[in-house]
Amino acid sequence: MRVLFTGGSGKAGRHAIEHLLAQGHRVLNVDKVPLDLPGVENRIVDITDAGQVHDTMTSLAGFDELDAPRPPSFDAVVHFAAIPRILMTSDNECFRVNTLGTYNIIDAAVRLGIRKIVFASSETTYGICFAQGERKPDYIPVDEDHPTVPEDSYAMSKVVNEATARSFQARSGVDIYGLRINNVIEPHEYARDFPAFVKDPALRRRNIFAYIDARDLGHMVDCCLKTDGLGYEVFNVANDDSSVGMPSAEVAARFYDGVPVTREMGEYESFYSNAKARRLVGFAPKHGWRDQIDG
């Protein structure tokens, strides 16, 4: 597929693009800084500028396409570009960039007849990660039916983006899939961070004791590109395993006392359920922290 990927220079995006290239897709990375990765083309774009977005989505991916009678159409758009968390810009700027950028990307894609759009939502939509004080889930494991009522600007922007995507899908009938991505872990971060998580599970409370390997996130994007006809859907994206060494029953007793448990869980099962992604698009994460940490 010919894929326009926004935000591919970021932590999550660069690993996703590497996976997509390995699957044979052609990728144009749209970002404010280029990605230095063999096989990927780059375009510097401000996604809050609708004109820049539309121009890029109708242009060449590389010099080789000059030999075509006209620029080919993109088969899919993957939208990851965003202010990636709170406390990087002002709250209102975070909200503005994330919501306006997402509107511009989906609007241009729909107007141009692109039939597949995948966008990055977030675990933060459930209101736990960036809450002031402690918030517990309404129930565990957390699935896509859990309420999304956050209080911070970043998570608010992601909830708005989901509503934007749902509305565009209803109007156009294209496939638009949102990924509620859990805490993204790069391969080098296992040895650096996970021994501390094993020693002190409380460090993972705000991430619902879950994570996703950046390479498996690329696999999830590819699964979405290959799955047609679902309309509008959102998916939790997380590893099968939790991010701490403590059995899930002990984690629940210590941190989620009184929180309803909706079903029996595996011994170390993540509290951030990926069952829907497994069922509908064939998601099957392969990379985990237990394979990376001695002992």
TrEMBL record:
It holds the Pfam family Epimerase. This is NAD-dependent epimerase/dehydratase family protein. The lineage of its organism: Bacteria, Pseudomonadati, Pseudomonadota, Alphaproteobacteria, Rhodobacterales. Gene3D superfamilies: NAD(P)-binding Rossmann-like Domain (3.40.50.720). Residues 3-223 form the NAD-dependent epimerase/dehydratase domain. InterPro entries: Epimerase_deHydtase, NAD(P)-bd_dom_sf. It comes from the Bacteria.
